[in-house]
Amino acid sequence: GAMLPRMRRFEIGDYVYYRNTSARTALDPEAKPEILRVVEVRPTGVLVLEGRCGSRLNAHVSHCAPCHLPIEDHIVDPRLARPSPSLACEVCKFPDAEEWMLLCDGCGT
Predict the structure, then answer these.
(1) Which of 65-94 are b and which e, b meaning 16 or more Cβ less than 10 Å from the residue's Cβ?
(2) Is the domain of 48 the same as that of 18?
(3) How far apart are CA 48 and CA 51, in angstroms?
(4) Same domain flag for 28 and 54
(5) Which of 15, 53, 89, 104 could form a disulfide with 67 if both were Cys (CB 3.0 to 4.6 A apart)?
(6) Residues 55 and 88 in one domain
(7) Are 39 and 60 found together in one domain?
């Protein structure tokens, strides 16, 4: 028979898991452990997702799975955010050579 796949509909405020698109082996988990909240649904099938740290990411609905856990805490905590690997130090403006760094991206502050 011709079985059609079930369409997933996401709404603003839903919680989702984002698929691990950077998995290199079959042993890597299929979904990342973070639970993200849908803040915008675009007509193109792209969701704007927000983490608890406040960072946002765009993902297609085919890379998202619904989270059915009861989540009542909607507070965003920016202290949970991780800086980008290419973020330069605010003092010396040096973004790379992390093998020489202890505390920051060049000056050690």
Answers:
(1) eebeeeeeeeeeeeeeeeeeeeeebeeeee
(2) yes
(3) 10
(4) yes
(5) 15
(6) no
(7) yes
Most confident of 5-9, 53-57, 71-75, 84-88: 53-57
pTM of the model: 0.61
d(CA 77, CA 97): 30
Instruction: Tell me what pLDDT residue 105 has.
Output: 47
DSSP secondary structure of the chain:
--PPPPPP---TT-EEEEE-TT--STTS-SEEEEEEEEEEE-TTSEEEEE-TTS-EEEEEGGGEEE--S--------GGGPPPPTTPPPTTT-----GGG-SSSSSS--
**Distance from C-alpha of 5 to C-alpha of 24, rounded to nearest angstrom:** 27
Domain of residue 87, residue span = 83-109
